[in-house]
Amino acid sequence: MLNKTEPLKNNITIVGAGPAGATASMFLSSFRIKHTLIDKAVFPRDKICGDALSGKVLPVLKKLNPDLIQQLLVQNENCLGSNGILFGAPNGKTLEVPFKAVNSTINHSPGYVSKRMDFDYSLIKLLNPEYCNFLQNSEVKKITKGEEDVTLNVLDLQSKETYNISSSLVIACDGAHSICNKLFPDHKLDAGHYCGGVRAYYSGVKGFHRENFIELHFLKEMLPGYFWIFPLPNGMANVGAGMLTRTISSKKVNLKEAMLFAIKNNPSIKDRFHDAKIVGNIDGWGLPLGSKKRKLSGNRIILCGDAASMIDPFSGEGISNAMYCGMRAAEVARDAINSSNYANDFLSGYDQFIYNRLWNELKLSHTLQKLCNYPSLFNFVVNKASKNETFRQTISCMFDDIDLRERLRKPSFYFKMLFG
Ligand SMILES: Cc1cc2nc3c(=O)[nH]c(=O)nc-3n(C[C@H](O)[C@H](O)[C@H](O)COP(=O)(O)OP(=O)(O)OC[C@H]3O[C@@H](n4cnc5c(N)ncnc54)[C@H](O)[C@@H]3O)c2cc1C
């Protein structure tokens, strides 16, 4: 039992046990560093999401333990292997891009789709109780920065008691509505860099690619938003739509209605839903996009995943970036403890790690996102790309491994793609 009359003191507290927080915890445990992990939910819990896990998840899992890829993804009946992505252009043309690069050596699917209810819980089951004090059903209500520590005011949602936890460092993994990033003034919701998303589960959707490609459709009636259909195990599908918050407000879009309208009327997809049935509700949630640089650390706090606005602005993918952040945050936290240095300058090494690795890709995705404002240009690019092997190969690399993206930095690639 916790004695909650005195503040609980520890070196490191992680707030939020989604992919970012669970990953940070697993890495801290691998460094034999004791820490507290807090989540307001009780796992297994749902998270509104497209449920697609890109190949970028694999290197993080591999670094933790090479066996995890088999255990969590390949041999897991709650995971469906996916071998590519299909882009649907506004004119109905499609571009199929396999995930696997030609020289890839992996012998399993590079991407997976798994309900977050299952995937997040399978990460939670890997937490190591020897090092991780996991407090579920515990909501952080307030965060206060002191001279020598950060104090979290926590509500025990079962007993309704509140208590404080003071820490040398907080790793903030508390998602899109992060309470921890309130200490970062430049993290206010920016409607030009934030997306609204809705998601529903369906059974009986027909016409998937034989290799379970995930599908991103840029439907004419939904631009500049996008519509997705991702195949799941047991004949289920995750279906949803996303749009920039600024556009939702300015055009007064009801995303749920727009999604249902497309399912009923769009000529490219309506037949596939003829016998489909919705299972459960259509739910919505926000996507903080990584399309502008922000401060990611300071005030003895390191921001990760959605709390750091790390979602890819084009694909809406955020799980792998969240896990990458969690891994890097744990490494920087270890170094901070070892050198007893929690100064802003020291922690800013984390910002550099993250942006060195992800910024070029996020910038490119931001450019692609803007393409959705110009349907004819989008059609042109899909037309060109469907005939261009260089382009398809490079996109495959993007999904295959974070290390293979160097080609995207070269202007010659874009020149070849458009005019080659
Ligand atoms: C509609 C939609 C579709 C998406 N589709 C995809 C997709 O297909 N693929 C993909 O990769 N990404 C997708 N994303 C993005 C992805 O869901 C997020 O990027 C990812 O969940 C981020 O992980 P995280 O660990 O940072 O945060 P989360 O997964 O949101 O976890 C945050 C955790 O913090 C806890 N928490 C929050 N506040 C508190 C508090 N005050 N006290 C204690 N605990 C707290 C929550 O209970 C939660 O468990 C989608 C997002 C949306 C909205």
Layout of helices and strands, plus pairs?
Elements: E1 8-15, H1 19-30, E2 35-38, E3 52-53, H2 57-64, H3 68-74, E4 80-82, E5 84-88, E6 94-98, E7 111-113, H4 116-124, E8 132-135, E9 138-145, E10 150-156, E11 162-172, E12 194-203, E13 214-217, E14 226-231, E15 236-244, H5 245-250, H6 255-265, E16 277-288, E17 297-298, E18 301-303, H7 319-339, H8 344-371, H9 375-386, H10 389-400, H11 411-419
This protein binds flavin-adenine dinucleotide.
Describe the protein in words.
The protein has 420 residues and is of the alpha/beta class. It has a domain at 8-69 and 117-188 and 291-362: FAD/NAD(P)-binding domain, CATH 3.50.50. 32% of the residues lie in helices and 25% in strands. It has eleven helices and 18 strands. The chain has helices spanning 19-30, 57-64, 68-74, 116-124, 245-250, 255-265, 319-339, 344-371, 375-386, 389-400, 411-419, and strands at 8-15, 35-38, 52-53, 80-82, 84-88, 94-98, 111-113, 132-135, 138-145, 150-156, 162-172, 194-203, 214-217, 226-231, 236-244, 277-288, 297-298, 301-303. Strands 1, 2, 8, 9, 10, 11, 17 and 18 form an eight-stranded mixed β-sheet that branches. A hairpin with a 4-residue loop joins strand 9 and strand 10. Helix 1 (19-30) packs parallel to helix 7. The longest helix has 28 residues, at 344-371. The N and C termini lie far apart (67 Å). The mean pLDDT is 89. The structure holds flavin-adenine dinucleotide (FAD). Flavin-adenine dinucleotide binds next to helix 1, strand 9, strand 12, strand 16 and helix 7.
